Amino acid sequence: MEMPVADKVAGLALKPGVDAWWWWAFIPAMALTALLAVAVSWLFAKGIGVWGNNNPVMWAFPIINYVWWIGIASGGTFISAFFFLMKATWRTALNRIAESMTLCAAACAGLYPILHLGRAWFAYWLVPYPDTMGLWPQFRSPLLWDFYAVLTYVISSALFWYLGLIPDLATLRDRAETPGKRLFFGLAAVGFHGRGEQWRHYRATYGVLAALMAPLVISVHSIVGLDFAGGEVPGWHSTQFPPFFVFGAVLSGFASVLLLVIPLRRLLGLGAFITERHLEVLGRLMLTASVCVGYAYVMDAFSTFYGADEVEHRQFLERLTGLYWPVYWATLLFNVFIPQALWWRRARTDPAALMAISLLVVIGMWFERFNIIVGSLHRTAMPSAWGDFHPTFWDYATLFGTVGLFFSGFLLFVRFLPVISIFEMREMQASGEKP
Amino acid sequence: MNLAGRFADETALAVAASSLRLAGIEPLEIITPHPVEQLERGVSPVPMIVLLAGIGAFVASLGLQIYAASRSYPLDIGGRPYNSWLAFIPTAFENGILLAVAAGFFSFLILSWRESPITEAPGDGYWLAVAPEARAALEATRPSAIAELAP
Fold it and tell me: What residue segments make up the domains of chain A, in order of their start?
């Protein structure tokens, strides 16, 4: 009894040769990755001065991009871990794509804090190793918490992703026709044969790891929020930041999953498994996250003007009408107003509309972080410390370079690994559920 | 063990497996394309390993931070307490999760890496593998096909 999902998905991973569309996507992605390599080399040769970062806008693009990527990464963990625990059947067809997105996005995010250190070769100072000077990292600082959070997130995401792949790698090993592929998938499948005892440990491990990943993703984005809330900068010093950042992260995460899933299901012919229902569910999730983000924006304004701090008032009005006013209003438009179209079923089931809304949300979430970081830092409490920020070519090269890095990694995954979890689809089909 | 009988679905497999177990057929290996809860026997130790690793790493991390901040290198910052343990919770939490996830992953690899008489996978589907002497018992469970496996 052959099940079509295994034939389809294993066939995609094992077939010889590469489709033309894949090259059309991969070559530009690799070109951007090469640009990233040049930008990083230039940065290491010349120092942070190649960027537009200045005093007072010290964080600028590297931290905007970092928060943006780590937010995008969250979408995959939510789908693979949180909705696994909720036993949502729609998750099965999407979770592999979403998790692979998480892995590539988390890798891009992880680069930025290191690059932003200035002296990246001292990054190991963040680790409490026994040094001759008897010094310790500052464990009370949210910035150090962030290091541990991102380290944990990147490693755990990779292990969870790989654990999910093992049974499918075993399937590919059994179906591979060339010795090279048999060797590759045989090594990757680490001796998994689907024996009863292996499944018993597997099911237990996957369940507890999912139960750990779900609080982990919340903690990572809360700590990213605390990076800001812990600083005494007007516009940052707010207790609502941790949930605010979690909302924003899942909004951009679900939008990014849609941006990848909609073209992939057409290019790879996965329409039988990733159906209109999946797009609709993701549309609903994006709408929910958008409403939460809208609430956070309202509370941001409310708590500012409910308080009596004139610096905070001035800072907020500066956002609405100051140098970067288009960024603030575009943030509201892209993240809150336009996603309201998703209240209509037609918008949730129309791939073109979903693509457009998702793309605007992903851009809008980058704008939101620009707003928080540059918007706040360029007008702090002391007018004598005011300054403007102008990004340089190397800022853009690094940003788009990581976009290339993301797509290079993701396209390699799409070509060589099973894009849908074969064994989970089989389990679902065996219990009579539809994808 | 180099005979494998194939069954139509997990229910047929479960019926055959329990009849072979009742008949005392040893060794008996179940091979399925996905986890089947009703076929599982016993509780996996992985969750307990994960719990212990997580708690252990949390406590160790908290202890290291308290030692660093209040014994090894105490800094007086505006008269705040040296042992400001609340601020150490996030790092301890992340360290606990990291060690728990790693312990779960690697204990799964070690536990499932057992010498098995099956060196060749019979292919997709629901299978019961037995030693060649048990051919009659396997045939009595009426598998839809019987495959010979390499030893």
Answer: 2-430
- Name the minimum distance, in Å, from the CA of A44 to any CA of chain B: 29
Give the CA count within 13 Å in the CB-facing half-sphere of A166. Answer: 26
Write down the ipTM of this complex: 0.93
A positions 332-391 inside 8 Å of B (CB): none
pLDDT tens for each residue of A34-92: 999 999 999 999 999 999 999 899 999 999 999 999 999 998 899 999 999 998 989 99
Question: What are the distances in angstroms from CA A188 to CA A125, A183, A191, B101, B108?
Answer: 34, 8, 8, 19, 15
Interface residue B132 vs chain A (CB under 8 A)? no
Q: Hey, are the CB atoms on B44 and A152 less than 8 Å from each other? A: no
| Min distance B25 CA to chain A CA atoms (Å) | 16
What is d(CA A213, CA A197) in angstroms, rounded to the nearest whole number?
24
**β-strand pairing of B126-130 with B28-31:** antiparallel
Q: Bridge-partner residues for B146, per DSSP? A: B5
- Angle subtended by helix axes A60-77 and A393-416, to nearest 10: 20
Out of B54, B105, B112, the one facing A198 most closely (by C-beta) is B112
Specify the pTM: 0.94
Domain A2-430, CATH number (from 3.40.640.10, 3.30.70.100, 3.40.630.10, 1.20.1630.10): 1.20.1630.10
Residue tagged 């044969």 (tokens)? A193
Q: Could you give the C-alpha distances from A339 to A226, A333, A363, in angstroms and in order?
A: 27, 9, 13
Alpha carbons within 13 angstroms on the beta-carbon side of residue B145 total 13
Residue range B56-94, pLDDT digits in tens:
999 999 999 999 999 998 988 888 899 999 999 999 999
Q: State how far the alpha carbon of A107 is from the alpha carbons of A157, A254, B85, in Å.
A: 10, 18, 31
What's the token pair of residue A326?
Answer: 């288009």
Q: How many CB atoms lie within 10 A of CB A140?
A: 18
Q: Are A164 and A427 in contact (CB under 8 A)?
A: no
Residue A298, both tokens: 């309202």
**Residue B73 is nearest to which of A136, A193, A195, comparing CB atoms?**
A136
AA identity, residue B41: R
